[in-house]
Amino acid sequence: MTRFVARWVKAAQDRWRAWDERDVVSLSQKLTDPAVRSGVILDLTRREYRALREFNRRVIASTPGAVFYPLLARVEGRGLRQLRRADKG
After folding, report:
1. Count of the separate structural domains present in the chain
2. What is the side-by-side order of every strand in the sheet holding 42-44?
3. What are 54-87's pLDDT values in tens digits?
4. Does residue 61 fall inside a structural domain?
5. Residue 69 lies in a domain
6. Contact at 8 Å (CB) between 46 and 75?
7. Residue 15 resides in a domain
8. 69 sits in which H/E element
9. Dihedral through CA 60, CA 26, CA 35, CA 46, nearest 10?
């Protein structure tokens, strides 16, 4: 019974926050592309946009001295946004 409840709780959390681990991985692959550092506008899905906060939290937790850098992104359904992403200082 506990596993069943745990699966339901996990599914509810994933639905509530509207992103999952695949979105964080996809976002990190897009952000590590060298073209992003040269000022290219990045195309993000809504789920990747929502996963950006978790991505930044993980970078800050694992990298002492991490710094935020500006990033232009076209977010699906929201238009052009200026975002902040954490990276090594």
Report:
1. 1
2. 42-44, 67-75, 79-87
3. 999 999 999 999 999 998 999 999 999 999 999 9
4. yes
5. yes
6. yes
7. no
8. strand 67-75
9. -90
Distance CA 55, CA 19 (A): 11
3-state secondary structure 29-47: HHHCCHHHHCCCCEEECHH
**C-alpha distance across the termini of the chain, in Å:** 47
pLDDT in tens, 22-51: 999 999 999 988 877 787 899 999 999 999
Quote the longest CA-to-CA distance of the chain: 52
Q: What would the two tokens of residue 18 be?
A: 């509207």
> Domain containing 40: what range?
20-87
Tell me, yes or no, whether 68 lies in a domain. Answer: yes
Let me know: does 57 contact 19? Beta carbons within 8 Å: no
